[in-house]
Design goal:
Blueprint (H helix, E strand, L loop, with lengths): L13 H28 L3 H22 L3 H4 L21
Helix pairs in contact: 1-2
């Protein structure tokens, strides 16, 4: 049999994943608000960069929030497998 399954190698709970996604998305939307506020007070090309960040950031925020975390890909649950060799079986003819 392979090594036993460890509880620490399991994926995070759906609630924890949802919380992590919410935090990532909230940070990105906070940066978007800052871009909007800063864009109002700037002039020239910097204003356009700030407004472009405010326009395109929601798209990237959704992609980043829903992307699988790098730690979750290495922590997959595996089912243990057990094999029995054929010589363990006895055939009885009646």
């Amino acid at each position: 049999m392979d090594k036993p399954q460890s509880a620490t190698s399991l994926e995070s709970t759906p609630e924890q994943e949802r919380k992590d996604r919410l935090i990532k998305y909230s940070i990105a939307m906070g940066i978007r608000v800052i871009c909007l506020i800063v864009g109002v007070f700037l002039q020239g090309w910097m204003m356009w960069v700030a407004f472009a960040g405010a326009i395109f950031l929601p798209y990237f925020a959704v992609i980043l929030a829903n992307a699988p975390s790098s730690s979750s890909s290495s922590r997959k649950a595996t089912s243990p497998t057990k094999s029995i060799s054929a010589d363990k079986f006895n055939i009885v003819d009646d």
